[in-house]
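[Solved] Which block belongs to which protein?

Original post:
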Amino acid sequence: MSKQPNSLNLTPAQLKVMASSMRLAILQHLEAEGEATTKELATQLERPATALYHHLDQLVRHGLIRVAGQRETERRPEAVYALVSRQLSSSKAVRTPSGRKALIEVASRVLASSLRAFSAAVAQAAARLEGPGRHVAIRHLVFRADRQRLMQINEWIDSLENMATSSSADGEGMLLTIVMAPRAMPGHRPVRRRTQGD
């Protein structure tokens, strides 16, 4: 979640609210589609609308989504939800212990969601696993990186994020998850730094 122009600087409380599989699914759908009503979200996520009300309320209350308008229906107007921002920055939230803990919880949910999507895609006969048009892939790379190489890697990550947030409405919906961390060395225990906050 790198910082972009007009990005939303998340608080630890907002990060914690995102640590829910259903709320992440709602956020992902709104990121891909732009706007949706509760009924549309329920259809897409294959859940009853009543199961979404609490999650939508929490996302609105914590400033992650907003009511962008209303859509007339045969029965009554329905609220239309949209993201507050497509760029989310956790840079301030992770300065506190609670923010870092919440980030770990969010990362766990994101990885679980990505694994489910990957498994479902691979199981399909139409999955494209090879060639320039492949849309299913996994890579696990272990290597050494000096400061210059790390800077280059981060530029690539930022470039991918910029491409994703400026994508067109056409084409195939894609999910790309990137995780980067220092490799834990056998017998090495990371030093826990004291941080101010909370």
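(Second protein starts here: sequence line, then its structure tokens.)
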Amino acid sequence: MSEKKRTVFILHELEGVPAGEIAKMVGAPVLTVRTRLFYARREVYAAMANDPALDSIAQEMLASDLDGEKG
């Protein structure tokens, strides 16, 4: 995962920083931050899916993200 995606992922998913704040911190548009977050999540879920012990967790997280995008 690229450093830019990793930074956005950690700030948002682990630290709870909103996308707008991350955009200010990294000097990028909010849409760019959200795009990086989208692709970072996909990479994390794909890596988790390769581990049988984590696959069900990855599927739940992916389903949760997809439900959130609809609403």
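Accepted answer:
You had them paired correctly. Confirming on the second one: The chain has four helices and no strands.
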